[in-house]
Amino acid sequence: MDKLIYINGEWVGADLAKIVVRNPATGEAVGTVPRAGAEETRRAIEAAHEAFPSWSRLTAYERSAYLERFHDLIVDSADEIARVLTLEMGKPLKEALGEVMYAASFVKWFAEEGKRVYARGIPSHKAETRMLAIKQPVGVVAAITPWNFPAAMITRKLGPALAAGCTIIIKPAKQTPLTAIMLAELVEKAGIPKGVVNLVTGNAAEIGNEFMTNPMVRKVTFTGSTEIGKELIRQSADHVKNLSLELGGHAPIIVLDDADLEKAVRGAVASKFRNGGQTCICGNRIYVQEKVYDAFIAKFAEAVRKLKVGNGMDPGVDIGPIIDRDGYEKIDAHVKDAVRLGASCVLGGEGRAENGAYFYPPTILKDVRPGMLIMREETFGPVAPVQKFSADEEAARYANDTPYGLAAYVFTENYSRGIKLVEALDFGIIGWNDGLPSAAQAPFGGMKQSGIGREGGIEGIDAFLEVKYVSVGL
Ligand code: SIN
Hints:
Elements: E1 5-7, E2 10-12, E3 18-22, E4 29-34, H1 38-57, H2 60-76, H3 78-89, H4 93-113, E5 120-122, E6 129-137, E7 140-144, H5 152-164, E8 167-171, H6 177-189, E9 197-199, H7 204-213, E10 217-223, H8 226-236, E11 242-246, E12 251-255, H9 261-273, E13 283-289, H10 293-304, H11 325-340, E14 344-347, E15 352-354, E16 357-359, E17 363-366, E18 383-389, H12 392-400, E19 404-405, E20 407-411, H13 415-424, E21 429-432, E22 447-448, E23 451-452, H14 457-462, E24 465-473
Parallel strand pairs: 7-8, 7-10, 8-9, 10-11, 12-13, 12-20, 13-18, 17-18, 20-21
Antiparallel strand pairs: 1-2, 3-4, 5-6, 6-24, 11-23, 14-17, 15-16, 19-22
Helix pairs in contact: 1-7, 2-4, 2-5, 3-4, 3-6, 4-5, 9-10
The chain binds succinic acid (SIN).
């Protein structure tokens, strides 16, 4: 599968050096994409800049019609996209298909939401003036997207950007450009005018630098690590770029002693092991109240033992490979550190590396303590460390003791305890008796070092709009 990049409605880059995309389950090459740099990125930005006036002048209904067509094409090609997604990213095919439908849902939601960008009339303090707040598209948007959700993290940005009237340049992760390119092919097929959507693959430093320094780019939207997010904040200073950042997480799962344990186990398995633990919102540390600690661990282990690890293309697989060696080594270091400091392994605990592919089994660690690496850093793998606590306030204190604030999970059947806990947690997303809170219509984003802004929901389109206040003298 040798693919090209998409600039100004044309497929280009055949003359550039190639990046080989590999299947993380086998180490085999699955395709190539061009290694573009600053020059191609500049051309893509210019194309987006040129397309902006006409795209932003279309009515919201006209833009919506394009997005509806794009949505339908994604749904029609879902199996084909899911296959490529699994080949380059590794997640099990059924999860890949779920992701493609999740990706489509953002396009659908924002096709509709674009028609509801309302202006506001403000009562004036002077009889001879009228006051209005109107909303306009930010302008050219650069989107930098991650490998863990190669389809959905693109549409969660592209959908609202286009609905708002912005034009866009997408830079997908180097590990997963093929899914992104398939989406760009559907953009073309949907008849979205040239230059409105552009896609470049290649040298991340050069592309990122062009995004951050080119004055035509008015907004940068990024999903990825907190480390890179901080770098983007620094780089954005000179041009005061509008930034949306969805960064790292370190989600706590809190199980209170009145929780329905079946529900808590179901939720913890869903949150922790979705995408093999390689999501920003997956539970990274589990706090269980002492009275139900042993019972929870027993039931949790029984459920987790059934999860099958393997090549995501094989039927029945629940957990695919770890994306790469760095990811694998981090997981391994977290487990080893916890065991060295006194945690015990209930399940798993030993990964395997074969022919450039890395697999880690679902692992449960018990009796972990706050100082351990795994309780301080995002693991991004299928490891569930469990710690005991006594009082509800203690759980909130442990949970908040992190620079991150993306997602948290609470399991309790008691509404008073639940509400108090929800209010005490410094996280942008809370799953209360729910291990899978993400949805196109809900705001997604973090507090503290987990990011700036929200994606999805009514907030998701605001991120691509500027408010203009107009005072009219009569
Ligand atoms: C992420 O891991 O960044 C996205 C997860 C989601 O949308 O649920």
